[in-house]
Every structure is written in structure tokens, then in C-alpha cells.
Predict the 3D structure of the following.
Amino acid sequence: MSAQTPITVTEHLWIPLPDGRRLAARMWQPAGAGPFPAILEYLPYRKRDGTAPRDATTHPVFAANGYACVRVDIAGSGDSDGRFDDEYSEQELSDGEAVLEWIAQQPWSTGKVGMIGISWGGFNGLQMAYRRPEALKAVVSVASTVDRYADDIHYMGGCLLSDNKNWASQMFAYMTRPLDPKLRPDWRAEWLGRINDLPFMAADWLRHQTRDAFWKHGSVCEDWSAIEAPVLAITGWADAYVNAPPALAAKMTGAPAKALMGPWEHRYAHISQIEAADFHGEVLRWFDQYLKGEDAGAEALPDYRVFMQEFTAPSPKNLPQNGRWVAEAQWPSPNVADMVWPLAEGGFAPEPQAGTARVQSPATVGQAGGYFCPGIRIDNERPGDQSVDDRASTCFDSTALLAPMEILGRPRVRLAFSVDKPVAQVVARLCDVAPSGQSQRITYRPRNLCHDDSHEVATRLEPGKRYEVEFELNECAHRVLAGHQLRLALSTSYWPIVWPAPEAAEIMLHLDGCALILPERRVEVEIEAQAPGAARDYPKYQAEVLGKPWGEAETRVEADGTHVLESFDSYGAAQDLTHGQRVASNVRMRYAIHPDDPASARFDCAWVFNFGRDGEGDQEDWGVRIETDSSMHCDTENFTLWRGIKAYEGEEVVLTREWTEVIPRGCL
């Protein structure tokens, strides 16, 4: 940064909203009067402490390259006014439009604003672009979705994800954190008021079990032409959010869209534990092109730049992956064509086959699946060797490949089937099986067999009746080496990622209507991949580390046969050297299920946050502790969700409260 523009930092400022509320912001900008193009990051994760370590690695770099960077906490989070009502709510998005307008009108602003964000910020960047505010000229969206029902943390393939409750438990803990007394003299009343007014998000989301208007709100796939701001969409293969970048590149019509897929987990690429890359360079090229009007090379990028993975010994740790960078000038690509492999007994055949195959698995299949979204815990999150799950699944294996084969896109599974229960799900995993027998998951996806293709209608199944379904697995890029086998593994469960069906169902496949469809990539001459470079130097968060982060996970089988996965993550403790606040947090999670009883599934989660600051002058020391607990269990008819909180000021308990919701299962 020494050779770049000096910057100034405004630790706190208020952004007024039309109704009189204020949103809390932090700003980095080049020294001088400007005007400068601006970059907005808009989150509920608290700019004062929550994202401060990450913000320190991004916005100062962008500011040193000529941008005014504004990091804003949405209403009801951090030190902002108001109440939080839900993720991507109308309040959040309309407030965001007002923030964009305010930025554009400032004397230091050129009026041109870009949005950047990962996950929540990646979501609302796309959603804001969908609304076409005048000031928003470009978006960098990382680990996001274009369809809130199909590809978020709530449902997948019409099946309920256990992270619907896990994520709600995390947000419950996050949104109970206190306002900073240094900025908000009314912090105590606002803090307790926020807690009492918090929506029970897990229950709210679970009430919407099909793709209704609730999920269509904020899903930009409803009208691909609506987005008129150029979008750079980025994610990593270890992330949960892999489908949006190629979908945007393929379907956006109102502005340029480019996709970049690396080997990363759910983090900005420059801080990836798997393989760090020059995230800053990618962002600056995009914004230089569309906010500064420079010929920075963004328009000439291939539509789809992708890290083509190869077999890497499966490990739950965030380790480097084998592979190489490739690119497709246009997406969809003429270099990719469907290859249909009809299913046969235990394998594949050149033509459709007669006969049947049975799929019925214990509720514990999925133990090697890892966590839904690697990058959120400390480590030990990724899928391990799939052999243990493969042995409990119905598998279809190819012969050993005589030559390498590349798969790029979304494989599809076509099934003709009958079932013995009115509610059933199937989970398909595509695996790369090495000669050693190790099995690496390439991609996967569950499917609720009660759903129509739109996921808008769910109907209970008629036992014994023949049905047909075809569904996509998640996006992948994988080169299968010569001598390796491809395996399609089918199961009726995938715990703990997927919440199980109410009863153990038996699926009978009618092989004459079953096939695996692979998007095979064949290229005679590769174009230049234009892969991201090595991560550049970047500044670090100025804090005193009081406790280092660490985590652990344990699996065990209890005396009654229940399988338990427990994890503990300490996110460490630190004191900010600018404003003196101390923060420490940890989370404990427990997943339990009996292999013979899907309705025994249970999730428990406990978060602890500690905040403190030494007193100054005649001010006393300040300290707050929040303990939140959450759980979810079920029977064959209902889900039961519970949450509770105990909040302390110093050693005094100032609030204790519990909530319980019972929600019918419907066709889940």
C-alpha cells in the first residue's frame, strides 16, 4: 500500500434514512476531497467488531486504489437504529436503496457506486441490482444465490436442510449482541428491546415449505433481464453456494456477467485456508472498468473461469486441491455436451435396461458429508472419504476409465421409481473412486420426491405407483483420471446436511427409466484461463489477541445406537486497538440420529458472546454476556423448535426468555 494513495478512515458515521432512522457506517477513502467512485458493503454482521477483521483486509486496499468504501450495518444490527425483521426483507432492500442514493449525493462521491459482499452481502448486492437503483453501476457477488428457495441455507431440492435451524440459531445469537455504549447512550434499552422483538426465523422459514411468494421475493431468477449492472460472480468449490455464478453468466441479458470458480471455501479468496488468491485484483479490475470507466480488461474476460479439480485424497481439513485453471469464452459452452449413461444393476449400460434396484439406507448416511457450508467453522468441515456412506447406499459404478474425462456443469439424474411411503426423498452423490478405493465426492443434491419440477406444489406419494423425476445435481468441474471410476450413489437420507423424511422409505427404481446425464467437456485447444494471481499483501486487523481460535469435532455411537456428532468452535478473543472493545465467542453444536429411526433426528446449538471495555475517567468498566440455546427435534407429524436466551450485564441477569414453535411437517 505504500506506493498507493494514502487513505483516511472514518470509524463511525450516521447515514440518515427518509423516515428518520439512522444506519451506522464506517468509511475508508483516499486522502483528499475527491470525488471518488464508491464501494458499498451492506450487512447485519456489525462493522464495529463482527466483520472488522475481514474489513481490515479489503476496504483499505480498495480505498488506496481510488475508492470511497462504505461498510453499513442494516437496521437493527450493530449500532444502527430500528429493528431487524428478516433476511433480505423489503425494509432491508428499501433502506439499501436509500443508502445508495445518500452515497451518490455526497460531495466526495462521483455518484457511481458498486456493491460487494460474500454470502449475505453477495445476496443483497444482486437483489439491489434487481431493483435498478440509479446509483448502482456494478456488483461483485461472492457465494450468493439467484434462487432463495432452491439454493440457500433453508431447502435444497425441496428437502429441508438442517442448516435452516443451525443458521437461524447463529443469527439469533448474532442479533442479540449489544450496541456499543460509546456510540449509543441508549444502548441498554435498545439492546433488550431488540432481543424481545427478534423474529423466530427458523420457524418463519419452516412455515414456507414450498417455493412460494416468500422465497420468490429476492430471487433474481424471477426475471434475468431486470439486472442492468454488470455482475462479477465468484465462489469456491468447497463452498455451499456453487450454482449462482454459472447461472448468472448463462442467463443475465441486461448487462455483462462473468463467473469465477476457485478451489475456495466460504471466504473471500485472499483469506482462503485452501489456497489464497488475488481477490483484490479481481474486484479492482471489475470496478475500474465499470465505476471508473477505464479499459481494465473486465469486458474481455471469458464468461466462465474455473478451477478444474482432480482427485485429491478426501479430508475434512481445508487442504489444497489438485487441479488446473481452465476457461470457457462463452457460457453455456459449445465444448460441453450431455453424455447419457443408463443405469444397470450395479453400474451403467449402453442402452436402457430392464429390472429394478432397491434404495433404502439407514438414517445415518451422510456421516462423511462434512458440514453444509465449509468456511464458517474453524476447520474439519469438508467431506471425507465417501466409502463409509457408499457402503450404506445403492451404488452404480463405471468401469475404470481408459482416458481422462472432464465434467463441467450440472450433472442430472433421471429416475423412474415407486415407493412404499407417502413422503420420501432421494439423495444422489457423484463420486470419483480412485484405484485405492477412496471415494471423493464431486457433487451431490437431494430431491424431495413429493415435489413437482417447480417446487411450488408438494403432493403425498401413492405407494406402489410408478413416478418419474429428473433433477440437477450441484455445479461441478472435475477431471476424472484414467484408471478411476465414476460412482453414482443413491440413498434415502443424508444426515446431518439434510433433515430426514418422517419414515424410512424404500424406493424401487425401474431401471428402464433411470440414467445419469453428465455434462462432458471436450476441448482441442484451451484458451488462456486468466486465473487469479497469488494473493497480494494486505493490511491486517489492529487488535490484541487475547485468545486464539480453535475447534474440535467428535463422532460417537451411544449405548442405544444413536449416532452423535458434536463440535465446539472458539472464535477466540480480541481487543480492538482503536476503540478498546473486547469480544470473545464460541459455539457448541450437536447432531443426533438413530440409524433405524429418521424421526429421532435432533439438533442442539449453544452460543456464548462476551463483550467488555475498561472504564475511562469516571466511567465504570462495561461488560455483557449473552448465552443463547436452540434446538429442533421432530416426530412423524411435526417439527418442534425451541430457543432460549440468558443475557447478563456484569454478573447480573437482565433478561431470560424462551420461545417454542410446533410446525406441521407437510411433505417434508
